[in-house]
Amino acid sequence: MRPFDQRFRRLLRDRRGVSAVEFALLAPVVLITIFGLFDLGYNVYTAELLEGAIQKAARDSTIEGAAAKTSGLDAHVAEVVHAIAPAATLDFSRTAYTSFSDINQPEDFTDVNGNGMCDAGEPYEDANGNGAWDRNQGKSGVGGARDAVLYQVQVTYPRPFPVTAIFGMKDSFTLISRTVLRNQPYENSETTPSIGYCA
Questions:
Q1: Which residues in the chain come in under a pLDDT of 70?
Q2: Burial letters 59-84, b for 16+ CB under 10 A, else e
Q3: In terms of DSSP bridges, do strands 89-97 and 148-158 run parallel, antiparallel, or are they unpaired?
Q4: Is residue 47 in a domain?
Q5: Contacts of 82 (CB under 8 A, 6+ apart)
Q6: For residue 118, what are the contacts with CB-CB under 8 A and spacing of at least 6?
Q7: What is the per-residue pLDDT for 63?
Q8: Looking at the 3D structure of the chain, how many domains does it have?
Q9: Does 10 reside within a domain?
Q10: What is the pTM of this model?
Q11: Residue 65: half-sphere exposure toward Cβ, Cα within 13 Å
């Protein structure tokens, strides 16, 4: 047997350094998986904190006099979120409806020509009192007594483990949390719809 063949056979049998090569091949996959799990866990934890904070803020918003305290309630939600995601930006909105069944529903109108649209001259019920027919009959704010209020918070924050960029995902994460509660019956409802005509 030639010396070259002997050296080649010896090289094939040599197992030194195999672990290093295997580690080099598997380490990136393992690390991406671990960081992906951390990212997922972080997002779930932040969502749970936000959900709890807005549930409390929404409950506190249903009592009489809460309209003057909305900025303080929102500040508490922001404080809870910033404890886990310091760079987060928050966007708050409250929309009041006469009842739960009215949420995200258009204002009622009489469809005279039967085309499913509120055309010029067709009467509609101006539920939010803004003088125009709307696809969403809610009015901005905490509303009055007995109103159902949709409280929504949108949170955007940079991902702490931006490995998701490898898969084409954004380096920031946005989550939206909503809750709906009815204001306590501390007085007569302010909501008195009027009739208008579509323009």
A1: 1-8, 10-18, 164, 186-193
A2: eebbeeebeebbeebbeebbebbeee
A3: antiparallel
A4: yes
A5: 88
A6: 106, 107, 109, 111, 124, 133, 198
A7: 80
A8: 1
A9: no
A10: 0.71
A11: 0
